[in-house]
């Protein structure tokens, strides 16, 4: 569906304008002594944000945790809620059925929760019920899979799928510098998903920038079995490869099994998402995998923290603008043996 304008949506936009006006007025007002006093009102401080406030009831709903990354998403949401003494979490059963998830959100609305954190099994399918929540005065924090209306959420927090492809391609370009005839292969996830398409586009764009291209490509399904089957097909069809990017470390378990079964080691492998399994192999530096690109499994945990701030009318203390941003896109850094210690504590188990 296209962008839907609602009374709640117009009110949200008006609220943003009011905040901007307040910020501008604060910035333009002084007592005549330049350089003295605060330039702007930065909203709540980090100390104020950490203080317990009124209890916030947050409804959390996500897909079924049928692989490692989604399992980490769910456990991260629970851990974040437990870390706040003023948060009561109501968790819906994980499901890959959009109708069941819609019913869960409707129940949250009926219960009058203070905020909803939602990783939709299908962003378009959950858009209308998210708008209903917003119209009921319940802020929705949209995680990972975007709704099809800007008025369906108060905050959208995303991983950077296109950026993952760019990061993987840039790393491979650096490692293959000067090898204009290098054979670069790609093992994608589910091709019908926009996130897979974004990852592949970012990868192709980064390779093009250094004069390379994807020579061979197969798609899997984010599962171990799918990764093994896709990698076996790729290796059989391509006797010589210089580098492979595998989109997902969960399916990477199967990819590595296929590589080891084939006895191939003439190339290096870059993973995706950032599992602890792959980071440990990167750290050991005794196999073809040399790097992985982070797709944060902390998004739902961040969503819980932001839902608390919004419900308590607090702000992000490190921003000058006294608000919580409406859209946050997280980074997609490359993890290698040189920096793996910085990331492994936040990695998920495949």
TrEMBL record:
Residues 58-314 form the Periplasmic binding protein domain. Keywords: Signal. Residues 1-26 form the signal peptide. The keyword DNA-binding does not apply. Transmembrane segments: none annotated. GO terms for molecular function: carbohydrate binding. It is found in: Cell envelope. GO terms for cellular component: cell envelope. It holds the Pfam family Peripla_BP_4. PROSITE patterns: PROKAR_LIPOPROTEIN. Belongs to the bacterial solute-binding protein 2 family. This is Sugar ABC transporter substrate-binding protein. It comes from Microbacterium barkeri.
